[in-house]
Amino acid sequence: MMTKITIQGMKLDEKSSYQQGPALAPPLIRDALYSGSLNLFSENGINIENAIDDKGDFDIKNYFDIETITKKHLNLDNKILTLGGDHSITFPVIKAHHEKYPVLDILHIDAHADLYDNYEGDKYSHACPFARIMENGFAARLVQVGIRTLNTHQAEQAEKFNVEIHEMRNLDLKRIPKFENPLYISLDMDGFDPAFAPGVSHHEPGGLSSRQVIDLIQNINTEVIGADIVEYNPNRDFQNMTAFLAAKMMKEILSKMLEI
Ligand code: MN
Ligand code: MN
Q1: 121 CA distance to ligand 2 centroid (A)?
Q2: 10 Å Cβ neighbour count for 144?
Q3: pTM score, whole prediction
């Protein structure tokens, strides 16, 4: 069992297309985790407390500083869990992982496919990270779960990049494939139904339950080498319930990362 997992927070929301707020998220997810409201055990009985090597939060002025910071932390030989920030952070984080993990699968949980070639002229918008990842060949396989906003352009992009999309409208979690390569998990909090996670910029009804996402993560059968939790927007939250859901997901994902 691995001893430490690095936590890094990326305070960036300038690449959000609709509302700001996710830059405020990382310290608030930590506050929820250490609030005393919950213990620090995952559901399968792993105490994550001593596994955390917290490097704190970074004010991101230049977008690709995210890649530099992530590379520095990867050199410590720990796995990394990144707290966003909006979803734009995932491209530079994955770019940093590519050298160490040239063959990587990604499990992406989101209401949105985030496959736009560009969004309002920005190729690094939070609507674009998975287009950048796929055109650079940074993922052998991209499996998306929870999608319920597919338009014509993104459907074409998905086809072009061979993205495996499990849409909400006909979701069967038993059909999610077993992974074979090292796996990275990218969890956009708006993949959850807004009833479970109101603290997101884009409320998209008809989403995943907390239980469905926890089950999905607990059933992963391959090594999880990295992860991010993004798009928590504290400005939209109700009674911190989305912060507590993000903290719960942190525990479940960390426990999975510690498994191998
Ligand atoms: Mn997203
Ligand atoms: Mn989303």
Answers
A1: 19
A2: 24
A3: 0.98
